[in-house]
């Protein structure tokens, strides 16, 4: 068995700062979105996926992959959103086991009303503190890490 490659102090401080930032930022975005629109951050994520499609519909498994959610989590969340009238479910005509999640007019209205205030909160809490160079570095870092994750490379 090989020894763990422990993080040095600099990397450990950076990692812990990233984790704290991610946790606090996510919590603040969720609370603000909930207060402004009654939508959860998870609701918003689902609605963003649907509004990004020309016909406002996506296969359930494709949506689960895009959100990186377990199928059961997505199923429960979609059921809650469906009860609120934000989305609908439709059977897939060419696959008896498949289904679509479909954006409803109420769901479109909800995200259109929530998006302006949400983007302002994202700017205020995140981007307004960064220089153009910070934004470029963040994008480069994100692309490197995402590329590694997409390659399914083992650490």
TrEMBL record:
Q: Where is the HTH marR-type domain?
A: 11-147
Protein name, UniProt field = MarR family transcriptional regulator
Organism source for this protein?
Streptomyces humicola
Q: The organism's lineage?
A: Bacteria, Bacillati, Actinomycetota, Actinomycetes, Kitasatosporales
């Amino acid at each position: 068995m090989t020894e763990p490659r422990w993080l040095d102090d600099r990397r450990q401080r950076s990692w812990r700062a990233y984790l704290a930032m991610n946790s606090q930022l996510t919590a603040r975005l969720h609370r603000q979105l909930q207060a402004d629109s009654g939508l959860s951050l998870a609701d918003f994520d689902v609605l963003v996926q649907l509004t990004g499609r020309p016909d406002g519909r996506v296969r359930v498994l494709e949506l689960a992959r895009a959100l990186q959610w377990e199928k059961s989590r997505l199923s429960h969340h979609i059921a809650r959103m469906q009860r609120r009238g934000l989305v609908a479910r439709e059977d897939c005509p060419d696959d008896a086991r498949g289904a679509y999640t479909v954006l409803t007019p109420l769901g479109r209205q909800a995200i259109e009303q929530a998006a302006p205030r949400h983007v302002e909160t994202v700017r205020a809490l995140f981007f307004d503190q960064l220089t153009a160079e910070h934004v470029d570095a963040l994008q480069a870092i994100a692309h490197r890490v995402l590329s590694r994750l997409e390659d399914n490379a083992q650490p």
